[in-house]
């Protein structure tokens, strides 16, 4: 019920992203049902039906990737202060995200079933003069359990993936997690390393750095007084806070230089670039070996193409390598932007790219892999050969659209993540034109890096199938 209410009151942009998930689920469900129809109309060719089902894994993975990206940017299931008090903790919000994803995918599966039944002629008669009867098995009754099983794949896999990725995690170090959980004073987790002198509990309110707005002025002198008062611990008089050579004491909760909170540690560079390059090189090597070998076994490919099974292995390794190397390449692009005495514009654009390398780099690598595969198919297409079927067109459009939508959704998530930084820059007087110029510079730098890479990978991927 909560997932339905959050779905109903969401903003139009959120509803549009959920609608894209529903459409992607509908396209994938329709392809799965068409595979079932082909198996029913061609019972003598089980290997062909199994191959068609295997080719449906690509749009299925693209749909699940899009559903995960949309779930990560959903503002309705984002943790907020005070939600745990009414039972909406991190685990409950994760369950709501999974339920919302399942609802969107179920809507798409219902649309796919209705459209499939309409094309079969089970609802209003056979449309298009029966042109689609070959892969729809219009003359045979539709096995409902098999159809429902195939349609349930997308909602089940998408919701489970969202639940696994968005599950609550313990961000504490491994050493802290290994320690036994204990309760300190006033129910706080963990034990204090320093022993408290007698009367420390009575002075807790004076030593507290946070509290009511009116307690700030009273708490700071009390803290300073408490630091100057010696405490007895094992017979020795030691100050509670070490002396910093006349420096002002740290008073928690007062901001500025006296704030006791430390800034966030800088993010490390993604470590998947060497592995991604290695997997990409292995995929290209497998494709080159397939080009040199003259094996008799051929596997049917989309668009009427055929090649050795090692070609598919090479394409798969190439796509995985690009996806793994994407964050590292994005981080490298941001670092190159800041080289050779950068100005404020290049420094801002490079820092943002380095900070968002993991969030944007992986979808960008997937888009690069899909674009290289599509370009390779366009290079190998022969107008005099077999025509591209409607299901192949639907599959290519579905995978391409899902990857592009995932990249745009990741960009929206990155913009939401740095909204506080953008607002701070605007308050400091940074012009809005500089922020837009930095965004354009980031897009141009990524295009300059990933564009030639996509063309090179596409040329090498098309080499094994070149006559």
Measured as a percent range, the helix fraction is 55-70%
* Count of alpha and pi helical runs: 17
The average pLDDT value, as a whole number, equals 75
- Low-pLDDT runs of 5+ residues are 185-190, 203-263
The H-and-E topology, N to C, reads as HHHHHHHHHHEEHEEHHHHHH
Query: Kindly, what is the distance between the CA atoms of the first and last residues, rounded to a whole number of angstroms?
Result: 58 Å
Radius of gyration: 29 Å
Would you count the extended β strands for me? 4
General description of the model:
Helix 2 packs antiparallel against helix 4 (57-72), helix 2 (12-41) packs across helix 5 (90-120) and helix 12 (309-337) runs antiparallel to helix 17. With 467 residues, the protein is an all-alpha fold. The two termini are 58 Å apart. The chain has a two-stranded antiparallel sheet with strand order 1-2. Strands 3-4 form a two-stranded antiparallel sheet. It has helices spanning 2-8, 12-41, 46-55, 57-72, 90-120, 144-151, 153-165, 174-178, 204-207, 216-228, 273-292, 309-337, 344-355, 357-380, 390-417, 419-427, 432-462, and strands at 231-233, 236-238, 299-300, 306-307. It is 62% helix and 2% strand.
């Amino acid at each position: 019920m909560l997932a339905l209410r959050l779905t109903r009151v969401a903003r139009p942009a959120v509803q549009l992203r959920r609608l894209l998930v529903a459409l992607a689920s509908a396209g994938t469900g329709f392809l799965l049902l068409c595979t079932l129809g082909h198996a029913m109309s061609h019972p003598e060719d089980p290997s062909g039906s199994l191959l068609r089902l295997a080719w449906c894994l690509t749009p299925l993975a693209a749909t699940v990737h899009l559903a995960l990206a949309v779930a990560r940017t959903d503002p309705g299931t984002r943790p907020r202060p005070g939600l745990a008090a009414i039972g909406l903790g991190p685990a409950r919000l994760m369950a709501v995200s999974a339920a919302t994803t399942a609802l969107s995918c179920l809507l798409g599966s219902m649309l796919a079933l209705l459209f499939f039944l309409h094309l079969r002629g089970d609802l209003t008669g056979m449309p298009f003069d029966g042109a689609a009867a070959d892969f729809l098995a219009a003359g045979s009754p539709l096995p409902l359990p098999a159809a429902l099983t195939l349609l349930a794949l997308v909602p089940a896999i998408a919701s489970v993936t969202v639940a696994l990725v968005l599950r609550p995690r313990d961000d504490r170090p491994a050493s802290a997690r290994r320690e036994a959980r204990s309760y300190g004073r006033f129910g706080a987790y963990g034990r204090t390393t320093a022993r408290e002198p007698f009367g420390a509990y009575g002075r807790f309110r004076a030593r507290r750095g946070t509290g009511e707005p009116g307690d700030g002025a009273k708490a700071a002198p009390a803290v300073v007084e408490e630091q100057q008062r010696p405490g007895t611990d094992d017979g020795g008089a030691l100050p509670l806070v070490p002396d910093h050579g006349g420096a002002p004491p740290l008073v928690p909760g007062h901001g500025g230089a006296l704030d006791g909170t430390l800034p966030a540690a800088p993010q490390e560079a993604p470590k998947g670039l060497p592995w991604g390059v290695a997997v990409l090189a292995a995929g290209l090597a497998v494709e080159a070996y397939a080009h040199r070998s003259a094996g008799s076994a051929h596997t049917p490919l989309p668009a009427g193409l055929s090649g050795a099974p090692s070609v598919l292995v090479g394409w798969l390794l190439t796509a995985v390598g690009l996806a793994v190397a994407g964050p590292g390449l994005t981080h490298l692009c941001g670092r190159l932007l800041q080289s050779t005495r950068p100005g404020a514009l290049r420094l801002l654009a490079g820092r943002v790219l380095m900070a968002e390398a993991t969030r944007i780099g992986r979808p960008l690598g997937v888009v690069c892999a899909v674009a290289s595969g599509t370009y390779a198919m366009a290079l190998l297409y022969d107008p005099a050969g077999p025509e591209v079927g409607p299901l192949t067109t639907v599959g290519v459009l579905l995978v391409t659209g899902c990857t592009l939508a995932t990249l745009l959704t990741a960009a929206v998530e990155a913009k939401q993540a740095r909204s506080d930084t953008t607002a701070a820059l605007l308050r400091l007087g940074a012009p809005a034109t500089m922020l837009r110029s930095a965004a354009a510079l980031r897009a141009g730098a990524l295009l300059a890096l990933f564009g030639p890479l996509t063309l090179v990978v596409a040329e090498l991927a098309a080499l094994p199938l070149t006559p």
